[in-house]
Amino acid sequence: MASARTSVFRRKSSGFIVLIIFVFVTLFFFYDKEEIKHESEHPNAPNVARLELLRSKKGSRHKDDFEKEYPLLLVNEQLVICFENGTDYRKLPYITESPPTTEQDPLTTQRNIRRLLPTLHRTTTGDAAEPMIYFVTPTYPRREQIAEIIRLGQTLMHVPYLHWIVADDTDTCSQTLNHHLKKFGIPYTQLASPMPEVYRARKNAPRGVANRRAALNWIRTNGKKSGVLYFGDDDNTFELKLFSEIRYTKKVSMFPVGLIGDYAVSTPIVRNGRVEGFFDSWPAKRKWPVDMAGFAVSLEYLALSPNATMPFRAGYEEDEFLKSIGLKLQDIEPKANNCTEILVWHTQTKSSKAPTVRISMDRQKLDRLNLGTVLKQLETMGVNRISETEGTTAQAIVEGSVKPLSYWFS
Ligand SMILES: *[C@@H]1O[C@H](CO)[C@@H](O)[C@H](O)[C@H]1NC(C)=O
Ligand SMILES: *[C@@H]1O[C@H](CO)[C@@H](O)[C@H](O)[C@H]1NC(C)=O
Ligand SMILES: *[C@@H]1O[C@H](CO)[C@@H](O)[C@H](O)[C@H]1NC(C)=O
To answer: pTM of the full predicted structure?
Structure first.
């Protein structure tokens, strides 16, 4: 009996402890959820904002302080245009009916069929029959950069009347990036838009902000007041239908983005054809809890807010930008079939460290093989590193046996 009662008591008290733990965990969970954004603008970025947001929340910041720390105005910002070409030199990659010629298209190895496609060959400034899409891509030097740009560029090659603004987070103009951008034949502008050092030092650096601000600056400097602005990161997947959906945006259009946060989607909530709310796993007291890739803005509408910009505040870029253009709920047009279709995905790319390949022989010898060119190219892109003294020793395989690279030079 006594032992039975003890065990009942034990069960009760352990139940009580479990309850207390449960309450604590629940409280922590709800508190924590507000603090951390589901993910960041770029792959590889650390969980955005934990420390910073905790700090800013606890400090219950004054409005003036907020504006000092996250200035919206374009102060001392310079526009560094590295390269641009407003003419559309695209060749459609997949048509092979034209008679064989000796000329090889360097990008597609398809034949030059431009003469069959007069409609694509237009200039940005010309009498575009359709509104131009200004597709803004923030990018930054990393191993995956060029691979991402190629993938995105080949999507954009299918989209007529598009001007691609690629803003790179660098002080200097990347020749390697330009070499690849040029090949698509898409009208483009390459900007160098480094993140200010003061923000770079932060734990939750606001990535992509300097880039997008530079693109806004370019749009204003060039007096672009018709067409549509869209922020498309280099690690997203875009279904081609997205472009015809956003092209005729009147003020601001919105649509679902897949692979976002704990709901795996961020989307407006639409009833009877109108946006009435938002579905996003990171509310964080945002008025406009949307993903960067989940909206498009007409340039006519943007021009009404000459001071509109994006703050250097990780996690709040979309919200503050949309506030700065004075958006109202009733101005939002739901796209993608009343927000029932997912036309853009935050795919992200898994990032890993560049491996070091050890080649202890004279590298110039490798130029007699293809290996010299291939390895040099990857090094330029930051995909790998070559060292004489460390890393994984480079070897060759010949008829199933491993040989040293010197095999070809002995
Ligand atoms: C734009 O690109 C085309 C094709 O590469 C080239 O022929 C043309 O000279 C370029 N225009 C400018 C302004 O660089
Ligand atoms: C969206 O819903 C509204 C109201 O139900 C309807 O009138 C409209 O045709 C729908 N739009 C599309 C593109 O299906
Ligand atoms: C934009 O900012 C400038 C400088 O602060 C200010 O004088 C101007 O009134 C602002 N314009 C609008 C439309 O808010």
So the answer is: 0.77
